[in-house]
Amino acid sequence: DVKVTQSSRYLVKRTGEKVFLECVQDMDHENMFWYRQDPGLGLRLIYFSYDVKMKEKGDIPEGYSVSREKKERFSLILESASTNQTSMYLCASSFRSRGRMSSPLHFGNGTRLTVT
Amino acid sequence: GEDVEQSLFLSVREGDSSVINCTYTDSSSTYLYWYKQEPGAGLQLLTYIFSNMDMKQDQRLTVLLNKKDKHLSLRIADTQTGDSAIYFCAEKRSGNTGKLIFGQGTTLQVKP
To answer: How many C-beta atoms surround the C-beta of residue B50 within 10 A?
Structure first.
């Protein structure tokens, strides 16, 4: 079974703090993703990475950055946390799509971040 | 637009069938997925359908795809209280980025 592990289930941080959310997958997946989930808005893509040291902006990258130094690890960084970044953050991974492979995303259990 | 749309809430009685609907906008979508999220957990892949198929059945789950209308549905037969969760549809568009576009999620409430 694919395992995607997010380092924290719950985090409480203060406005202005630098916050690191860590994600590790054990299936040698090329692709890794960070989404945030808010009620009524579904999942929105923040950043994704399709290889080590590669990253691409998703739909809502403002206020976030990412780091992918190793294939299995993808970090989301909030440079200066703000209250509007209070949310559930979900990490996911998948194989690179090849031909007609479905390559579904496999998700971690999420990190609920509260910024006060 | 670029949205994937779902209704936000569905309530059914235990033993009834549930039908959760989804519309998408990109005719180049290659795969469409249904995920389930139980309280406090991440998203679990339920099933998926390739865009050249009309229907896929997997035990109590039936996925119907109307590509002309860009409409996807998930039918759960004999709905149980354990099916109470949020259900997300998602589309994968053509290209190799692998990212999925998700709907807002439908909260399914199953009453005993």
So the answer is: 12
- Residues of chain B with Cβ-Cβ distance to A109 below 8 Å are 40-42
Residue B83's φ and ψ, nearest 5 degrees, are -85, -10
What is the tens place of the pLDDT at every residue in A3-37? 999 999 999 999 999 999 999 999 999 999 999 99
- C-alpha span between A67 and B42 (Å, rounded): 22
Mutate to test the interface with B, among A57, A93, A105 (most CBs of B within 10 A): A105
The shortest C-alpha distance from A50 to chain B (Å) reads: 7
- Whether chain A has a CB inside 8 Å of the CB on B52: the answer is no
B98 vs A40: CB contact, 8 Å cut-off?
A: no
* Three-class SS state of A77: strand
Instruction: Judge: B104–A107 Cβ closer than 8 Å, yes or no.
Output: no
Contacts of B37 by beta carbon, 8 Å cutoff, 6+ apart:
B43, B44, B85, B86, B87, B88, B105
| Chain mean pLDDT for chain A | 93
- Round to whole Å and give the CA distance between B38 and A11: 20
Residue B1 has pLDDT above 60, yes or no: no
Whole-angstrom Cα Rg for chain B:
14
pLDDT the model gives residue A26: 95
Q: Searching chain B, which residue's CA lies closest to the CA of residue A38? A: B104
